[in-house]
Amino acid sequence: MSALAVSLEAGRLTPRVWFYANYHCNLRCSYCLTESGPGVPRRELGPERMLALAREARDLGFTELGVTGGEPFLLDYLPELVGEMARILPVLVLSNATVFNARRLRALEPLADLPVRIQISLDHPDPVENDAMRGPENFAKVVRAIPELIARGIAVRIATTLEDPDAVDPAESERLCALHRSLGVPDEDHVVRPIIRRGRADTGDLGVAAGFEQLDPELTITADGAFASPFGPTVRGGRMDTDLLVTRTIAPLRRPAEALAGVVEGSPPGTDTRLGIR
User: Fold this and answer.
1) What is the CATH number of domain 3-266?
2) To bridge 247 with a disulfide, which of 20, 29, 33, 256 should be the other Cys (CB 3.0-4.6 Å)?
3) Apex CA 270: angle with CA 265 and CA 274, to 5°?
């Protein structure tokens, strides 16, 4: 049995392959891993390449796909692409949910019958505090978009990213939970995680430091190469970090997948301090 098959079967390598569809975004969040924003280089993977790699991921034994950015839904082809990917494996898409106008909502409707979830960022129950981290009118757009997606039968998950989740006032946490419940998102679809001190968060001295030993190994594909985690292909000062780069080669997918599995299987027991971030 190959190192890849062993890692996947034992659960030491997460069975989801991530794709950075793009790097540009309509927002410029204070803790963004990739320094995304308007006008940054797009670094698109492209639909044909993503579909080919998704099929190979399935054939290699992976069981899930993830799509992130940037803001992936700035790509007009993304709803159709996600639908095609979901016919290969279940898909989780990360989004800021601020670009879901009527046209994009209509384009998303066919996803309702497919194994697709959209994970949306919502950090605070207070609009002012939320928007201080993510940008003007972010809160209003998000709480408007979530019920629209749910009404169309699209599964929604909420991700809350905080400087120190353990230090949050319990009353504030409960207000946030009451909010997402009122929007139609149950507790089991709400995840809370710390800011990772990489990218723009590192520049702003925010969050917790994390390297390979702290991050669950999840094969992550970008236009610049394959990384060990979706928290890996970070950008600081316009330059890509390479400390979590696995290979510059992304196709065939077997090459970076086997390379990452080799690193995982070669790590001595007890040397990791995983944060368990999803």
Assistant:
1) 3.20.20.70
2) 256
3) 85
